Amino acid sequence: MSGGARHPLDNPALGSLTGPHAHFAEQRGRVLRYPVDVSPWLALPDEPDADDWADLAALVGPGEELGLPAFDGGIPDSWEVTFSLDGVQLVDDGLATALEPEAVLLGPADVPEMLDLVERTRPGPFLPRTVELGTYLGIRRNGNLIAMAGERLHPPGWTEISAVCTDPDFRGEGLATRLTLAVAHGIRARGETPFLHAAAGNTTAIRLYEAMGFRLRRRTRFVGARVPELLGDRETLGVA
Predict the structure, then answer these.
(1) How far is 162 from 109, CA to CA, in rounded Å?
(2) Which of 11, 38, 123, 204 could be disulfide-bonded to 165 (CB atoms 3.0-4.6 Å)?
(3) How do beta strands 26-28 and 136-141 pair?
(4) Burial (0-12, 13-18, 19+ Cβ within 10 Å), 215
(5) d(Cα 200, Cα 203) in Å, to the nearest integer?
(6) Does 129 have pLDDT greater than 70?
(7) Statement: residue 80 has pLDDT above 80
């Protein structure tokens, strides 16, 4: 992109994997990815060229699926687009952050319960090692995990709040709001700014986030694509 440096949130996966999350990065050329049990997201440079798409294909492997967050570019013609989700990017614009007395810190030992909660609530990608990306807080009732929220992408100076979910039997108590504000409180305490993504069609959640003190920064897309089965020269990959 011409006209000066891009904002860190314009390519948040790249900022994460070349910044605070660099220790997770698997790299080929200018393409980076998280380990497959940490996050499905990959990072392309701001203006990917044919070599970058070829490196991405080699890094992921023939026939494998990949995910590109907050992605506004085009996918090579020979690649299968497996999903394309319109999204919004929201940033802190006056959140009343606060500690949450009922919240407990979640860690690797809690992952089976976290995965179960995610399976039942579908907040977005959460894998066996996603918990390593940052702080995750949960609320338990009678020993059972019923709500959680945590940190995901981490461009310099910013931290994404993600995996916000509540067991359907406990919705309506404001647990998601309380946990979101508690996670944001920890982000603010580090001198960073919270942000998050939501599906553009999830207007109920967007209204809730805006009422909490988030504001719309931009509209974007989340894209999934499958690498061609045959990896040959760049023409085979559709990136000539």
Answers:
(1) 19
(2) 123
(3) unpaired
(4) exposed
(5) 7
(6) yes
(7) yes
What is the CA angle 110-116-117, rounded to 5? 90
Angstrom CA distances, 91 to 9, 197, 230, 234, stand at 10, 9, 41, 38
Q: What is the DSSP letter of 22?
A: G
| AA identity, residue 103 | A
pLDDT at 6: 84
Structure tokens belonging to residue 149: 């929220």
Distance CA 28, CA 58 (A): 8
* 58-73 per-position pLDDT tens digit: 999 999 999 999 998 8
Q: How far apart are CA 180 and CA 184, in angstroms?
A: 6
Place of tokens 């919705």: 171
- Please, how many CA atoms are within 13 Å of residue 232, restricted to the half-sphere of its CB? 6
Q: What is the pTM of this model?
A: 0.92
d(CA 100, CA 175): 10
Check residue 41 and report its DSSP letter: B
Residue 108 — pLDDT band, cuts 50, 70, 90? very high
Q: How many alpha carbons fall within 13 Å on the CB side of residue 39?
A: 27
Strands (E), the chain: 26-28, 31-33, 42-43, 65-68, 80-92, 104-106, 136-141, 144-151, 158-166, 193-199, 214-226
